[in-house]
Design goal:
- With 484 residues, the chain is α+β, with helices and mostly antiparallel strands.
- Helix content is 41%, strand content 27%.
Length: 484
């Protein structure tokens, strides 16, 4: 379907993935920018169109890939080689389920009048639009419907009527959208429709649920595009409806399978903890009872049992916690990060005192999240900073924040042992303990290798981005970027 649209579209269309690499362009786009597929597809969009990165109001990463906004820009100036272009631009997210897997630019070039350098009315292209949409009606393999100004179905293609199995064309023509959609989306749909009707937005993309005549649900992604007359008055809309029912069913099966697997792992872990706790407890009691009657070698053997059982218990506890992060329905609300850092410092009071560490924190913002999880995130990070210290320096941890473009960027910087490039790249992987085995505190032998993996899981839960900068014998900075 997408290939057919791109080959026959009258617009400049550029699609890209979540890494901002161009995945396709319309034939008009290749001609307009004098590019070949080999020169553009697979390349980063900013490398082909560098002026897009400088257009701060575009902000593809935040507005489209993160916030899933539909962005309208006019004029959007694009320079490539020695040519300069000005467009009316729409920037739309490509969404499957809850995941944004890319985006798409739909661009209409601004034209100049003979007397003044000003843009023409985009609605003057109505005839071209009508021809374009008629082509879509007749050729693409997805459901397309025309809705009038009251949002009643007026005309649909064959795929549209096939989607509503059980209804005839006569049954559907003249039916209001709300009569065949789930009530939980009615308020949202009305809001979108009103915005399109008023011309506040020209198009919108959202998930929807329709009903067949049998009552069976149809999960869809709808793209609604407003149609206007020569004066810009609303006449109706085109709806392009993609059936994602099969995808949703597969998603639900995967969720259920993951729940069963997680439940199984949870039960096994609990069952393992009981004998391990017994081994650890009675080994310690035995060591106390016979400590004066053992040879040094026998004491070593007993200590191996005590230490090994403690490592196994810590390991299982971390696995249980890791799995529970996505299992539990954690409540989200406003969290003052200053309170989080205070709680962490209280929890780590003994380690901070033992290492005579100096902790400095700037005033931090309030974000949306779960306080319990955020305490665990910062506690794991600060605990690592206290563990991997330089023996010849007083440990220092600095917590700072930069707020920009809707993000709160929290940086935790220490003057510890630091990491090499490989460790920095792999440090969030499960069970990865790094190449630098030295630690200022021998308690590190009880590490499970899941501390920073848990940090990454909590960051993902909050839709935060986490990164590492580190240099051996200089220190480490871990940055966590929260949507603010």
């Amino acid at each position: 379907m997408q290939k057919t649209i791109l080959e026959n579209s009258f617009d400049v269309i550029i699609s890209f993935d979540k890494d901002l690499k161009i995945t396709n362009m319309s034939n008009v786009a290749f001609d307009k920018f004098n590019l070949s597929p080999d020169e553009s597809i697979g390349n980063h969009i900013y490398s082909i169109f560098p002026t897009l990165e400088k257009e701060q109001y575009v902000n593809i990463e935040l507005r489209v890939l993160t916030n899933k906004e539909n962005v309208e820009i006019s004029p959007l100036n694009i320079k490539i080689a020695d040519s300069q272009f000005a467009f009316n631009g729409k920037l739309l997210p490509l969404v499957e389920g809850d995941e944004t897997y890319g985006g798409i630019f739909i661009l209409q070039e601004l034209k100049e009048t003979n007397s003044q350098n000003q843009s023409y009315n985009i609605y003057q292209d109505k005839k071209i639009q009508q021809k374009y949409y008629q082509f879509l009606f007749n050729n693409i393999s997805t459901a397309v419907v025309y809705l009038d100004e009251q949002f009643y179905f007026r005309e649909g293609n064959q795929c549209f009527f096939e989607l509503f199995d059980g209804y005839t064309a006569e049954d559907l023509v003249g039916v209001n959208v709300e009569d065949v959609t789930h009530e939980k989306f009615h308020e949202r749909n009305r809001s979108v429709i009103q915005s399109i009707f008023k011309g506040e937005i020209v198009s919108n993309t959202y998930e929807n649920i329709y009903f067949k005549k049998s009552g069976e649900e149809i999960n869809t992604i709808d793209h609604i595009i407003g149609m206007y007359d020569d004066e810009g008055m609303f006449e109706g809309a085109i709806g392009i409806i993609s059936d994602i029912t099969a995808v949703k069913e597969t998603e639900l099966k995967l969720i259920e399978a993951n729940k069963q697997l997680s439940s199984f792992a949870h039960k096994i872990s609990h069952d393992l903890k009981e004998p391990l706790n017994s081994i650890h407890l009675f080994s310690k009691l035995l060591a106390t009872a016979v400590q004066n009657n053992l040879f040094p070698e026998e004491k070593d053997y007993l200590n191996f049992i005590i230490d090994g059982s403690k490592r196994a218990i810590n390991f299982i506890n971390n696995i249980l916690y890791y799995s529970e992060i996505t299992e539990n329905d954690y409540k989200i609300g406003e969290v003052d990060l200053n309170d989080v850092i205070y709680i962490v410092q209280q929890n780590l009071h003994q380690q901070i005192k033992e290492r005579e560490a100096h902790i400095y924190s700037e005033y931090l913002p309030t974000i949306f999240g779960n306080q319990t999880l955020l305490v665990q995130l910062f506690q794991n990070l600060m605990s690592n900073s206290l563990r991997y210290t330089n023996p010849n320096q007083q440990p220092f941890i600095n917590i700072s924040c930069i707020e920009e473009k809707g993000w709160a960027k929290i940086r935790i910087t220490d003057n510890g042992k630091g990491m090499g490039e490989k460790d920095s790249r792999l440090v969030f992987k499960p069970f990865y303990k790094g190449e630098n085995k030295e630690s200022h505190n021998p308690v590190d032998k009880f590490s499970s290798g899941l501390g920073l993996t848990i940090v990454k899981r909590i960051a993902d839960f909050h839709k935060a981005v986490i990164s590492v900068e580190s240099k051996i014998d200089v220190g480490t900075t871990i940055e966590v970027d929260f949507i603010n």
